[in-house]
Amino acid sequence: MSGQKHISRQNVARMTAPGITARKGGEPIVCLTAYDAPTAAIIDEYCDLILVGDSVGMVVHGLNSTVGVTLDMMILHGQAVMRGAHKALVVVDLPFGSYEDSVSSAFKSASRVMMETGCQAVKIESGTYAAATISYLTQRGIPVMSHVGLRPQSVNVLGGYRARGRDQKVAAEILNNAVAAADAGSFAIVIEGVNTQLADEVTKAVNVPTIGIGASKNCDGQILVTPDMLGLFERTPKFVKKYEDLKGITERAVKTYADEVKSRAFPSKQYTYKFK
Ligand code: KIV
Q1: pTM for this structure?
Q2: What does the pLDDT look like over 8-42, one tens digit per residue?
Q3: Rounded distance from Cα 22 to ligand 1 centre (Å)
């Protein structure tokens, strides 16, 4: 082989879990979710971290919670995202029921996700009970991002998706969960649906980056569910800023297409073949 280097997108240095941890207190970490290769390819350029979130169950598969998401679904979407993203760190959510039971069930699920998708880390929704799992996985080569505050997989215990930490007891519990997750070796912590004051307290209390969603601008990074921020859904939580109106754009395009099909304006000459 010649010494010539083959330059391809595969050679772009990819963000790592320690690279994310090193950003604590530094330049804000940009994160978004993705579930397919084309979206991952678009957002890769601008994101430090792409999460294949189990929100896929709700925003792609039309489920009414993330509880029905399976490991196989996460692996399929993780593989697609890995085909599109070459620069950002790709983290795949461990779905409900795939990691809570024991450290060995967590390792089995997480190692399967990493081996079958090629992603670089997993995320788990965690309380103090999950500290043993986080340290077990991390010691065995699996970087873990934790998720505290509003934990959507616990919707049936919480009774809904309201912001968390309104009373002192729950706020203290969330702070403890974050500290336990950091101490156990999480490389970053997502904090969702809490008030600004609590998010800031957590960010100060832990030595790894906090990634806020409905939390505070002072978090070390921010994440949004991409279809939400693109305006694909009418009803979204208060914390979602819609940066585009893809629902409206799609509706307009589809209506024009339907009108043109009905009037036979489409396909015109430009879009048909004529062999000489
Ligand atoms: O599943 C998901 O998309 C998430 C984000 C909301 C952080 O966990």
Answers
A1: 0.95
A2: 555 679 999 999 999 999 999 999 999 999 999 99
A3: 22
Distance 151 CA to ligand 1 centre (A): 9
Pocket-testing residue among 223, 230, 239, ligand 1, by greatest number of atoms within 8 A of Cβ: 223
Is the separation of the CB atoms in 113 and 107 below 8 Å?
Answer: no
Q: In Å, what is the CA distance from 14 to each residue of 118, 191, 206, 236?
A: 12, 24, 25, 32
CB 89 within 8 A of CB 120: yes
Mean local confidence (pLDDT), 214-242:
96
Domain extent, residue 59, equals 2-244
Instruction: Indicate which residue of 125, 192, 244, 251 is catalytic.
Output: 192
Residues having CB closer than 6 A to ligand 1 are: 33, 51, 53-55, 93, 147, 190, 192, 213, 223, 225
263 in any annotated domain: no
Residue 10: per-residue pLDDT: 57
Number of domains in the chain: 1
Q: Is residue 270 part of a domain?
A: no
Q: Domain containing 180 — which CATH number?
A: 3.20.20.60
